[in-house]
Amino acid sequence: MKDLKQLITNGEQVVGCSIRYGSNKEDIEKLLDYYDYDFICVDSQHSPTNEDYLMKICEAAYELDKPIHYRIDHRRHAYLIGNYLDHGPTIIEVPQSEDFNLVREARDNFYYRPEGVRSWGGAGRPSGKKETDQNMLGYPKWWNKTGVLMIQLESLNAINNIPIFSLEGVDCFSWGPGDLGVDRSFHPEHPFAKTNDTAIEHAVKLCEENGKKLCVRHYDRTLRNKFFDLGATVLMENREMEGKLDPDMPFY
Asked: To bridge 55 with a disulfide, which of 6, 25, 87, 206 should be the other Cys (CB 3.0-4.6 Å)?
């Protein structure tokens, strides 16, 4: 399995794709026949899901050598991140991040000591079984070098907070174009809020100044070069939406 954390840190171009709730290993295989995505996205914020399904889809994905990205349902559930991780995802995304203390709480619950406070456990998780020596210290050391923590920006205020959100252990920031589009509509004269693209460029600038990367959600792989050219290095696509939306319509 690719070392996603290192690839993202190095600024390599990384692309994932969403699957709908209820998808299985066969559905992931069909998706990978279309394109060899780097990771598979599961959403809890705007889609139904449960812990049993999360574990099953993680097991299916790891059989295909693909890590799972999981967007949790609410930023205030950051204290549950360790529990989510025990079901198997490699990437955690925290939506609507507006408060420094919640970002810090997410970071702390994502990593094991000494970097964080995640509790040791989760024998059923599929990740790390081959990569560690299976003792109590092996997995935490491996995880702290492997897991990817993503903080989602969904307002102009959140973009401006990139410098203070850029804690050690936060790997990248993700772009929430739907909520950001709504927020931008209330500030038409804001210097970097005139278009989605100008806002992305500003976020990229702040990320670069603070040693972080930007991830953008979109729905059509023909748009990849556009977002890479704007400075994003991580993309999340939705195969089912491809060709069905107006190019100017935001994807949450």
From this structure: 87
